[in-house]
Specification:
The complex is a heterodimer of chains A (114) and B (113). By secondary structure, chain A is mainly β. In chain A, β4 and β5 form a beta hairpin. Chain A starts with a strand and ends with a strand. Chain B is an all-beta fold and 113 residues long. Chain B has no helices and twelve strands. In chain B, the strands form three sheets. In chain B, strands 2, 5, 6, 10, 11 and 12 form a six-stranded mixed sheet that branches. Chain B is globular, with a radius of gyration of 14 Å. The N and C termini of chain B lie far apart (41 Å). Classes of the chains: A mainly beta (114), B mainly beta (113). Chains A and B meet through β4, β5, β9 and β10 of A and β5, β6, β10 and β11 of B.
Chain lengths: 114, 113
């Protein structure tokens, strides 16, 4: 079974621009979560989607948004980029949203904001 | 809210040494506990998990036991290899319709030949 895929793997943007990141979950998985990883803040939860609905949201400004499609693929969008948005963005998929479900992570998208 | 605390600082040890990484947590309800490993330039890989008190998760020689009385989930390996060099993260997820993971800060493990 193919793992979680994320595209693109690397992105370079300038302040003020917007960016869209894509995530394809493992086949059969209906839940997708997004996390931001930075050296200073570590791994922080962004949001979680299940059956095209946002079920949980982390403590991030409204510039961060996401959506999930009927095939469970997900995208996240960051508008009006700031230098502090430079990070590794990780997507994870799981069968459902029970706390016992294992989340499987993709390789991440490395975003650099100049 | 839910939180995870990992011991501070990197861990450097010689090949075949015993490894312990401490992890304690604060949570409401009955969380599941996980250890993930991250190799350079990669995403997170699940190492092991435990979903209820006294469960022991194990994989590739690593073990961790879910201790509710001490709110801990310490990771151990009896004999490390150079290939175990990576960053290790302890995490917990909510219970009941909440799959959100809370992570510790992570520990860089360096194994010297």
């Amino acid at each position: 079974k193919a793992g979680v895929t994320q595209t693109p793997r690397y992105l370079i943007k300038t302040r003020g621009q917007q960016v869209t990141l894509s995530c394809s979950p493992i086949s059969g998985h209906r839940s997708v979560s997004w996390y931001q990883q930075t050296p200073g803040q570590g791994l922080q939860f962004l949001f979680e989607y299940f059956s095209e609905t946002q079920r949980n949201k982390g403590n991030f400004p409204g510039r961060f948004s996401g959506r999930q499609f009927s095939n469970s693929r997900s995208e996240m969008n960051v508008s009006t980029l700031e230098l502090g948005d430079s990070a590794l963005y990780l997507c994870a998929s799981s069968l459902a949203i029970q706390g016992t479900d294992t989340q499987y992570f993709g390789p991440g998208t490395r975003l650099t904001v100049l | 809210g839910n939180s995870v605390t990992q011991m501070e600082g990197p861990v450097t040890l010689s090949e075949e040494a015993f490894l312990t990484i401490n992890c304690t947590y604060t949570a409401t309800g009955y969380p599941s506990l996980f250890w993930y490993v991250q190799y350079p330039g990669e995403g997170l890989q699940l190492l092991l998990k435990a979903t209820k008190a006294d469960d022991k998760g194990s994989n590739k020689g690593f073990e961790a036991t879910y201790r509710k009385e001490t709110t801990s989930f310490h990771l151990e390996k009896g004999s490390v290899q150079v290939s175990d060099s990576a960053v290790y993260f302890c995490a917990l997820s909510g219970s009941g319709g909440n799959n959100r993971l809370a992570f510790g800060k992570g520990n860089q493990v360096v194994v010297i030949p």
